[in-house]
Task: inverse folding
């Protein structure tokens, strides 16, 4: 069975600091994709970044980067130079090869940025 | 504008009264999916559809029905809603299923309360 674990229900970070949101996953699939989404207080789901299991390099999208450690089965999201607008819920999600139609999400981390 | 449109955004109903939440996408996506979001549980997949007339159960399908008669529409039907179906519902679509970078685009969400 596939599983996503986000162990930080909530985090507080000072503005302009970097922050790492943890995500570990469990799958027996040789091929899978990992996604991070942001959900601000307004409720919409916003795609942030994608990492394929066979990608040679860690994904980066502007201030977002993914610290992908395949052997540890972790896919942590790193936000550099945090901003007040980064305050939101963040979800890690996975799609595995054997059941690529099904997508599982973690329970989320609520990030709060202090001015 | 490329988007996933859900209606209604808010719905209060009573136990047992059948309801339908509509979902439509204008991106010619093959893959569509329904999720429910509950505090502390993240998003859980209810049903998904790989293409027209092809639907399958996600992790929490009990009490829900879907249909995919047209590529753009994927309504969620609650034949006899119960209070435990009170939740925030999201519809999402992506170009296809699969582990490649198939970004899911989400609707704005439907907040359902069943009394």
Result:
């Amino acid at each position: 069975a596939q599983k996503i674990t986000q162990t930080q229900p909530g985090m507080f970070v000072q503005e302009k600091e970097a922050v790492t949101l943890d995500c570990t996953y469990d799958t027996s699939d040789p091929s899978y994709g990992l996604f991070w989404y942001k959900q601000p207080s307004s409720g919409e789901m916003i795609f942030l970044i994608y990492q394929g299991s066979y990608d040679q390099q860690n994904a980066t999208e502007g201030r977002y980067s993914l610290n992908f450690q395949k052997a540890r089965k972790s896919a942590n999201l790193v936000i550099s130079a945090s901003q007040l607008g980064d305050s939101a819920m963040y979800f890690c999600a996975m799609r595995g090869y054997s059941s690529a139609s099904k997508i599982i999400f973690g329970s989320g981390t609520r990030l709060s940025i202090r001015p | 504008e490329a988007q996933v449109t859900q209606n209604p955004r808010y719905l209060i109903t009573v136990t047992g009264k059948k309801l339908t939440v509509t979902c439509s996408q204008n991106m010619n996506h093959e893959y569509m999916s329904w999720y429910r979001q509950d505090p502390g549980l993240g998003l859980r997949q209810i049903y998904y559809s790989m293409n027209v007339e092809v639907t399958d159960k996600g992790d929490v399908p009990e009490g829900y029905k879907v249909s995919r008669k047209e590529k753009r529409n994927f309504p969620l039907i609650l034949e006899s809603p119960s209070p435990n179906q009170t939740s925030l519902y999201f519809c999402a679509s992506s170009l296809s299923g699969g582990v490649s970078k198939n970004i899911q685009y989400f609707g704005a969400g439907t907040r359902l309360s069943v009394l």
Q: What stands out?
A: Chain A touches chain B through 30 residues (CB under 8 Å). The longest strand of chain A covers residues 88-96.
